[in-house]
Structure formats: structure tokens, C-alpha cells
Amino acid sequence: MKKQDQLFDENQLKVKELNEINFELFHDLQKYVFQHQKDIVKSNIILSAILDQMNQSQKPIVISKGMKNYVSQIEKSINMKEQLQMIKKQSIDKFTISGLWQTMCSYIVLLFIKELITGHYLIHFSIDMLVSIVAFYIALHNIMNEYKLIQRFQMTKKPIIMIACTLIVALFVAVIGAKSPFDVSFVILVIGYIVSKKMFENEFNI
């Protein structure tokens, strides 16, 4: 992961609020923190606290005793364990919500594929196609959200590989069993969602 990509989105928004003087100073502090704190999550927690202090005062921050001392004081003022738990909970919640949207919308796309094979449409071809296109976009968007969360915490690709495999298997089953009265593709998608979510949660406990 490149250095410029290590700053979390919420911190990037805070950077945009800085005045010109603090903006230049922050980039020096950001470089220092990333060099001395290898844990990307802890680095961003420290940088978030620095940004909050800079944006609250909107005055040039004076570092009289050196950068090392300033960052050390900021770090001591943070309840790191509490912050880490909060980020963990927020990230799992985001992954859960994205997974639910991705599962539901993927199933809508699979239903349309089955309709194409059987020639029977729920409402009308054009309307069903439009709904499936929107569903495909939402599913893809949420898969990207899941991937970004995995990238953010530098996790293994196991959860996203599980999602990809689930979609492939569900598509295969939907096509093969298109004319069958029994549809297990949704069950496959749900199982894949549960397993990928569990994998994501387990990565935090390693």
C-alpha cells in the first residue's frame, strides 16, 4: 500500500479543513507518524487526534519541543484500546451492511438471468432489466466497499475470495437450475455472506 493511500477517508476529509500553515505542518507530522508507527490503524488514530486539535484551534500549532515530543503527547492523550474497539465495531458494521446489500442485489440479478433463460418475466422485460441493472450496480458498489475495508486493514484476501467464489457458484446453480421449481442460489449467497463476514471478523482477532 502506498503512503498516500494509508490515510483513512475520514482523516482525508479533516485535512481539507486545515488552514495553509497547519496543512504543511500536518504533512510533516503524517510522514513522521507513518515512519515510526507501523500499525496503520494506530497511525490513523494518532493523526485523527492531531487533525482534531489543528481544526479546533485553526491557529498555527507550535511544536516547541520537537515533533517526537508532540506526537508522544498526543498519543498519551488517546485511549488507544477504546479507539481500536470502536473502529473494529464500525468496520464490522459497515462490512455487514455492505454484505447484506450485495447479497440481496446479487440475487435480483440472478433472478433476471433465470428470466432470460426461461423467457418468463416478473413484470416486463424492459422493467425487469432496468431493475437488474440498478441491482448489479448496487451489488458491485458494495463489493468494492467490502474490498476497501479489507485493504484498509491490510487483511488477507480470503473474505473477498469467498465472496467471488460464492457469486460464481450461485450463478452456475442459477443457470443450471433455471427451469427447476427449486431455487437454491439465494441459500448459497446467504451462506457465502455469513462465511465471508465471519472471515472478516476473525481477521481482527489475529
What proportion of the residues is helical, as a percent range? over 70%
Uncertain residue ranges: 1-5
Reading the helices and strands in chain order gives HHHHHHHH
Distance between the termini: 20 Å
Shape annotation: elongated
Number of domains: 2
Number of strands: 0
Largest sheet: none
Specify the structural class. mainly alpha
Helix segment tally: 8
Would you tell me the overall average pLDDT? 88
Strand content: under 5%
Q: Nearest-angstrom radius of gyration?
A: 23 Å
Overview of this protein structure:
This protein is an all-alpha fold. It is 77% helix and 0% strand. The protein contains eight helices and no strands. The chain has helices spanning 9-15, 20-36, 40-57, 67-76, 80-118, 125-152, 158-176, 185-204. It is elongated, with a radius of gyration of 23 Å.
Features:
206 residues, mainly alpha, 2 domains, 8 helices, 77% helix, disordered N terminus
Q: What is this structure's SSE topology?
A:
Elements: H1 9-15, H2 20-36, H3 40-57, H4 67-76, H5 80-118, H6 125-152, H7 158-176, H8 185-204
Helix pairs in contact: 1-3, 2-3, 5-6, 5-7, 5-8, 7-8
Short description:
With 206 residues, the protein is mainly α.
